[in-house]
Each structure stands twice: as structure tokens, then as C-alpha cells.
Amino acid sequence: MLFTNNTTVNFTNTSSFSDNIKWDFGDGTTSTLNTLTHSFDFNILIY
């Protein structure tokens, strides 16, 4: 999927048996929440 500038994406951790997680969005921000929304200010490709 190609997302263009100012795109908001919902993320949900569906892992089994994980005690902790860390999302790294590639823009200098991270999160340890299981479910979150993140906005990207640049073009991204998710596959």
C-alpha cells in the first residue's frame, strides 16, 4: 500500500505470547501501545 503525505494509519498488535512491543514508525517516533493511530507527514510504502 502506498500512503501519501498526511496519511493516518491504525495499528493493532495481534501477536500472541508477547510481553511487550515497540512500534518504530521511521520518523523518529515510537510507541509501546498495543493499538494506536499514527499520522505520517511523508510518503510511505507498507507491504
Order the strands across the largest sheet as they lie in space.
Answer: 1-6
List low-pLDDT spans. none
- Count of distinct strands: 6
CA-atom Rg in angstroms: 12 Å
Secondary structure class reads mainly beta
Largest sheet: 2 strands, antiparallel
Number of domains: 1
Oligomerization status of the protein chains: single chain
Shape: elongated
Topology as a string of helices (H) and strands (E): EEEEEE
Determine the N-to-C terminus distance. 6 Å
Percentage of β-strand residues: 35-45%
User: What's the total helix number?
Assistant: 0
Q: Averaged pLDDT, please?
A: 84
Residue share in helix = under 10%
Short descriptors:
0% helix; 47 residues; two-stranded antiparallel sheet; mainly beta
Structure, briefly:
With 47 residues, the protein is mostly beta strands.
Can you tell me about this structure?
The protein has 47 residues and is mainly β. The chain contains no helices and six strands. The protein has strands at 2-3, 7-12, 23-24, 30-31, 35-40, 44-45. The chain has a two-stranded antiparallel sheet with strand order 1-6. The protein is elongated.
How are the elements arranged and paired?
Elements: E1 2-3, E2 7-12, E3 23-24, E4 30-31, E5 35-40, E6 44-45
